[in-house]
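Q: Predict the assembly, please.
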Amino acid sequence: MQEKLKLVINKIGIPRAIIISFLILLFVGAFYYDLSIQMLLSDTLVRLGMNGVLVLAMVPSILSGTGLNFGLPLGVICGIIGGLISIEMDLEGFTAISVAMLISVPLSVITGYFYGLLLNKVKGSEMTVATYVGFSVASLMCIGWLFLPFRSPELVFAIAGSGLRQTITLSGRFDKILDQFLAFDVAGVTIPTGSLLFLGLCCFIIGLFLKSRLGIAMKAVGENERFAVASGLSVDRGRIIGTVVSTVLGGIGIIVYAQSYGFFQLYQAPLMMAFPAVAAILIGGASTKNAKISHVLLGTLMFQTLLIVALPVANKMVPEGNLSEVARVIVSYGFILYALTQAGGGE
Amino acid sequence: MNHGTILEMRNIEKDYFGNKVLKGVNLTVKPGEIHALLGENGAGKSTLMNILFGMPVIHTTGGFNGEVTFNGSPVALKSPREAMDIGIGMVHQEFMLIPGFTVTENIKLNREITKHNAVSRVLGDSMKSLNMTQMEKDARKALDTLGIGIDEWAKVAGLPVGYMQFVEIAREIDKQNIKLLVFDEPTAVLTESEADTLLQAMKKIADSGIAILFITHRLDEVMSVADNITILRDGELVAALKKEETNVTQLAELMVGRKIEKMAQRDHDLGDDSNIVLKIRNLEVEMPGEEVKGIDLDIRKGEIIGLGGLAGQGKIGIANGIMGLYPATGEVELSGRQIELNNPKASLTNGLAFVSEDRRGVGLLLDSSIELNIVITAMQMKEMFLKKLAFFEQADAKHIREHALKMIEDLDIRCRGPQQLTRRLSGGNQQKVCIARALTLSPNVLFVSEPTRGIDIGAKKLVLDLLVKLNKEMGMTIIMTSSELGELRSICDRIAIITEGKVEGILSPDDSDANFGLMMAGEYKKVHGKEAV
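A: Predicted assembly structure:
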């Protein structure tokens, strides 16, 4: 028994084992406080579909050697613009979300290309530079949102008549459209089939891409630049490909996120989009050098479950005021931090 | 004093993991003499010096046998620090200087002369201020001893490379108790006139009573300054001679010697230049530490040609330059077609392949599978092993697996299967994976650099046999670069010796040891006159 346990822990890695144990503890707490386990599980699945694509965006950037894509807000902004244009065109339902994605892709490709050029100039400190690129572009867009020539009354400030709103609601457009597509209940747990299928599709396509000639070239560049050069590959090109694919996934990811959330959030919101995605993939077992699709799925599931289950349990444990929220944040992030320092395993 | 010797090393033996690198070496140095220590790369010179200095690498690998006597009393040095304390100094090959400090500060580093000030009287010695005047005087004196006109207040950063060497030496002779000074190839980076100054300085130092142990490859320098000469080869002491008793040719012969028996019996038919497959003209390569300065070489179809020479002379740079890994100029023609330089893709698609000397750094994707490592270059450059699927060109897993299994069998790669990560393979098997990748490109000409570096003796033979087999059975032209002359002589048809970035000459493997030694030391043309070319 003990040996079996050791084998399992070795397989998933100690950090994952710690977090999973903590999660089990939380579920026990939830059960003890009489919280609806079904509700929690449903929420978890929704959150998996909601965040999965954004986390997946980390994979190409890690594999191409530019590290974690802290510049994710760039893709996010492209995705938001795609979504806004589809609303401006007064589209609804699946047409709206498809058009939003289709518009976001070319925007992301162009943005990602220039972003990739920039990252090639700062080899060795991509992640720091990327963070500030994300910050500055998101901040610049705070001005941009005010001046973009959108006219639809759903988008602009009602009184001023121009300038985009802080929060743009998607009800009547594509609110929950993927979550509710083919959704069904199993023992009281709602399965958001559409979102999960879409995440699966994205993972499948990225999986194919990673096994393609282009994808293999990109991975070789990321794993060993000198090897890549000796094999006649262009290092800069491989890194740009990784950045472009990552940015495109960021754009599509925010649209999936928004349909589930029900809103597009503008201005300051894209600023911090990269951090939960980074946390999720690291928890899933990726490093700044290596990432797999399994890391994306496992990481997103664990990270989101942690956030979802910890809040109501903490609320029940410490019912008064703000203290529960503070305690939850400290404990949850503390566990993540601790888990990540226990490197190793998980091969 | 023990019969006037300063250093005696007796019966020194050392092995690294069962591999004997020193087999009972003796070394005796008298005060005030210049003693030259000669030997090829890997002859054991560095190991002997590591023992003398008590380097940690010796102790972590199980210590050594034999005794060391310094200044009349037996010593067992445990760290370089102790060696310094008893009066052994070292002039390093790589400069250990702080660029932002002045010459004086570098010379006096950690041995600063200090004086008391108001603060230090209260807070203790670490607050003392520097006695700059005295320090500069000492530095000046040391520099004058060397006969070099560097300003003691200049910053090291701006000095020419040659001068840095003198600062290093000045630092050593400034130490009060110094009795033995080791020079590790001090002239390697110097110009001719700087080297002369240095040799003069060495004589002056020796005259002042300090013994000098002079490690070098340059035989003429040995003849001009050394009093006694010790020659090592393959960890064995081959000769201890007085300068008067010997000459350059004899030294060259002793240094090289005959090492390995013929591995594969080959009839070394030198052929002629009628069937040239690769023509190299005026090739210059800027590879740091292995610069190539204008090489002309014709490679005949179907031969194994060796590129030999000492480390740092440029032999490694040739293949790297032709394959586009380092900036190169010149002309390279493959079967009459010009190959574009500085473009690895052009070299690869035109039928050249390269097995790098830096196996783990350049040669392999260590965290990828054996099969991917074998096919990746062919896949990327020649679009092999692909199938169309929807909108991607997909890797053809079945085809890749078949090919990998065939290669694993043909080259006898010992592994758990084609999916194993190359990081987990032994050095010899990693090398075979590198060769398999090169073969997958089905090249006309194969460059192999240092194929046996860092792999054990059994595997060495397998790799060399493999190269011979490829050459014989597939008629592949192989250009093999190696620091091990014995290995080149055992399988090559011709051997070009590269010295100072140029072809010193081309020899047959059966040529005399003396000729090889002279060429490697760059003395061949001087001794044999014009006829050599």
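Strands of chain A lie at 167-169, 184-186, 189-191, 263-265. The mean pLDDT of chain A is 85.
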